[in-house]
Amino acid sequence: MNVRRSAAVLAATVAIGTATPAVAASPSPSPSLPSGLYGSSDPTYDGVWRQSLALIALYRVHPEPAAATVDWLAGQQCESGAFPAFRANPAKACDAKLMVDTNSTAAAAQALSAVGGHGTAVTKAVTWLKSVQNKDGGWGYTPGGASDANSTSVVIGALMTQHTPVSTIRNGAKSPYDALLKLSLPCADGGAFAYQPDKNGKLTANADATAAAVVGALGQGMVSVKAGDKKNAACTDAARPTPEDAAANGSAYLAKAVAKDGHLTSALPGSENQPDYGNTADAVVALAAQGGTAAATGPLRWLERNSAKWAEQNGPAAYAQLILAAEAGGADPSDFGGTDLVKQLTATGPAPVTASQDDSGTSVWWMVGAGLAAGAGIGFLLSSRNKRKQP
Q1: Does residue 383 have a pLDDT over 60?
Q2: Which of 212, 232, 264, 262 is nearest to 391 (CA)?
Q3: C-beta separation of 2 from 148 below 8 A
Q4: Closest Cα partner for 348 from 93, 91, 121, 43?
Q5: pLDDT per residue as tens digits for the range 61-101
Q6: How far apart are the C-alpha atoms of 269 and 21, rounded to whole Å?
Q7: pLDDT score, position 329
Q8: Any idea what DSSP says for residue 339?
Q9: CB neighbours (10 Å) of residue 92?
Q10: Which residue from 135, 210, 230, 377 has the least number of CB within 10 angstroms?
Q11: pLDDT per residue as tens digits for the range 217-268
Q12: 205, 189 Cβ separation under 8 angstroms
């Protein structure tokens, strides 16, 4: 679900991601930030994305979010059904100058479907996504852009909200699964997925794209992902590979990538290699979706030991990613390496209506203090979405 690009390209094309280090979120909210938004940093490039992830994560662990948080997200939608990364003035109709994108739209559709009560908005979003499907069956970040594994996978999650088989969503003869299969590498190249072909048509293994595509190829999304029961076996080439074959090979690639250190590594230009927390969290989800919770144990335990500072610096979307990883991997999001991820997430926005049930069925009510805590804006976005080669 994560696409990374440079900050310069991001600003120019309204594309998500970059290859620069994360920055700490502001300790206090800007007075110009809209009410109902999770996080305290500039939402220009990630407002809809981080809000959607926050609402999906809370849905997965059951606290009912404040109505203002859902209203804010719903208010970002354009009449066409599409969502931009951020709409500064929802009262003003969307025009050609406001860039909409598939990732924000697909994430918002999943979030609004999860919270309920927004069926029309979700259907409009999915209808728009169908209208911009590429001829190869996939989606790029922007309408008409070359299909990539991340965008196609997050859209698959949105398509599933309509309870229609993803394989039947076609542009001509091609489905989203056809687009993902075109981006899967043979076992000689590791069995991973590429983000998209380079200008010469060459595919390069990308762990970020692989984590997203494993979930997409399995026909799952952020709301619906669940632990699988297939082993993460060695990569196996098939004469006519299926989406399930590609998912298994991608999972095998991820398992090998995290085997040594327990995490994926980010190779940033001009800096030493460092752990990639966001993509490691996504890898946990992918490994669990393919092979069950046991398959994700290594990287999940590494995150429990090491991710607290990263999440604190990067705010709501980071906490949401960790919640999704914990929930998929069979860990307790309320005690993740000693951190209550749910409490930390809800502290970045309006207090939830209710909190989740504990194991004994007793309700726990959280009263979160006034004010927003550190949130993630461009800092998290910069650390978690990048189009580049990964080990």
Answers
A1: no
A2: 264
A3: no
A4: 43
A5: 988 999 999 999 999 999 999 999 999 999 999 999 999 99
A6: 10
A7: 96
A8: B
A9: 9
A10: 135
A11: 999 999 989 889 887 678 999 999 999 999 999 999 999 999 999 999 987 7
A12: yes
As beta bridge partners, residue 193 has 184
Name the maximum alpha-carbon separation found in the chain. Answer: 59
DSSP 240-303: S--HHHHHHHHHHHHHHHHHTTSS-EE--TTS--EE-HHHHHHHHHHHHHHH-GGGGHHHHHHH
Q: Check if the beta carbon of residue 208 is closer than 8 Å to that of residue 282.
A: yes
**Residue 304 confidence class, pLDDT cut points 50, 70, 90:** very high
Who's near 83: CB < 8 A, 6+ residues apart? 48, 76, 77, 100, 101, 104, 105, 108, 125
Within the chain, where are the H helices? 7-13, 47-61, 67-74, 102-115, 119-131, 149-159, 176-182, 207-217, 243-259, 277-291, 297-306, 308-314, 316-329, 341-346, 378-384
Cα(324)–Cα(102) distance, rounded to whole angstroms?
Answer: 21
Whole-number pLDDT of residue 354: 63
Rounded to an integer, the average pLDDT of 185-212 is 97
Give CA 31 to chain center in angstroms: 28
Instruction: Name the amino acid, one letter, at 6.
Output: S
